[in-house]
Amino acid sequence: MDLPTSSYHDSLEELWDEEEEPAEVETMMKVVPSVYHQYLDVFSKVKSEKLPPHRACDHHIELEGSLPPVGVIYSL
């Protein structure tokens, strides 16, 4: 099974910020299977606390025939 590669990172070193502790990186490499090491930034505590960067385009999905339901909205 081939996993898609990420075009955002060229190496594992680029995955961590200067803020990332080496002990945390080593722990993640032990816990996460080696197949997923290219995606270690997903498991980063430091990066999980930041918002993603703004991009030039937004993703928008248009669903045909979908309208919001019409009716009374009840408070819970």
Describe the structure.
- The longest helix is centred in the middle third of the chain and has 10 residues, at 22-31.
- It contains 2 helices and no strands.
- The chain starts with 21 loop residues before the first helix and ends in a 28-residue tail after the last helix.
- The chain is elongated and about 55 Å long.
- The relative contact order is 0.15.
- The model has no long low-confidence stretch (mean pLDDT 72).
- The protein has 76 residues and is mainly α.
- The chain has helices at residues 22-31, 45-48.
- The protein has a domain at 19-48.
Order of helices and strands: HH
Radius of gyration, in Å, reads 19 Å
The total strand number stands at 0
Average of the residue pLDDT scores: 72
- The tally of helices reads 2
What is the CA–CA distance across the termini? 47 Å
Structural class: mainly alpha
Residue share in β-strands: under 5%
The residue fraction in helices comes out at 10-25%
**Form type:** elongated
Low-confidence stretches: none
Q: What does the main sheet amount to?
A: none
Keywords:
mainly alpha
Explain briefly what this protein structure is:
With 76 residues, this protein is mainly alpha-helical. Helices cover 18% and strands 0% of the residues.
